[in-house]
Amino acid sequence: MEKWRIYVITVILGLCGARNSEGNQLSYNYYESSCPFLEDIVRKEMLTIFATDVSAPAAFLRLLFHDCQVQGCDASILLNSKDSEMKCSKNFGIRKLEAIARLKFILEVACPRQVSCADIIALAARDSVALSGGPLIQVPLGRKDSTTCNTQLADVHLPSTTIDVDGFLRIFMGKGMNLQESVAILGGHTLGAGHCINIVDRIYKPNPIDQMDPNYHLALKLGCPSKIPITNLTIIPNDITPSIFDNQYYREISLGKGLFSIDTTLSRDPRTVTIVNQFAADQDYFFEAFSSAFVKLSSANVLTGNMGEVRLQCDQVNR
Ligand code: HEM
Ligand SMILES: *[C@@H]1O[C@H](CO)[C@@H](O)[C@H](O)[C@H]1NC(C)=O
Description:
It contains 13 helices and 4 strands. The chain is mainly α. It has 2 domains: 25-158 and 299-307, Peroxidase, domain 1 (Orthogonal Bundle); 165-291, Orthogonal Bundle (Peroxidase, domain 2). A two-stranded parallel sheet has the order 1-2. A two-stranded antiparallel sheet has the order 3-4. The protein starts with 5 loop residues before the first strand and ends in a 20-residue tail after the last helix.
């Protein structure tokens, strides 16, 4: 506990961009009376999950991003229907939905009908960062769950691996992030891994503006030896410390050793190269920028107040 750095986030609540007109917004004490032990319950369950699966924190962090990217952070990614977001190929590799369902079950016993699935996703992600050695981020709560999901919207809004820096900045600046925060949020790639299916295009048809380190290129070829992967079992780590939330990712991308094209191009673009180098040199600076970026990512375009609902089961809307 002591080793966790607590960053006080000075993002004013007004920036939290709730999309309703009643003035309902996220708050830092939303569950104070309705579910006072919420954060302890989530933390305890996360510790249990991480003890048996070191790759789980990465999965929860990516889950938050992919939830928030489509219709805002509203747990739409969890809905199981003929129009599920999970049917979108860009959600390939998304995991741990069953762990969120289990947390929801535990929380329905502790605080029935109070805690939204969207808030559970946000808390699971922030504990993933903290328990992997990253900053302990205070996140405002009070998100409601969507009553809809749409495969096609997921396809439109989830970024492709070939996105360029312009497209990248458009996404994150659109959530109110500045340049530092936008570069910091991709530091989520300090955790986890990618499958060959997402890397082979880049390995076998390199883009000239995406200058990979030649030895790293060779290592990727060895890891993913055929243009069309013969299995989906091989994964390549995002950096050499894939289960530690640190600034190693920035050191590697600045050397041309980024797993995806956007990782490397971010370290070459004149707008972002200085920030990449600063994060590579100063982990505290990265943690601070990541913390405020995380609050913006997880607060953009949320449902609050009487918009949406608190689902009773995360994979289906209430009847
Ligand atoms: C333009 C933006 C982004 C692109 C193109 C992108 C792309 C990808 C791809 C292709 C994968 C590999 C999936 C697989 O093969 O299994 C991945 C993994 C991952 N991404 Fe991103 N990503 C982006 C932004 C983000 C952001 C903002 C975060 C979180 C803050 C994030 C967190 C992660 C994590 C933690 C993993 C590892 C997942 C695991 O190991 O299960 N990404 N990303
Ligand atoms: C790997 O997963 C992708 C996406 O789900 C699928 O299209 C492909 O057929 C799979 N490949 C193998 C060899 O299973």
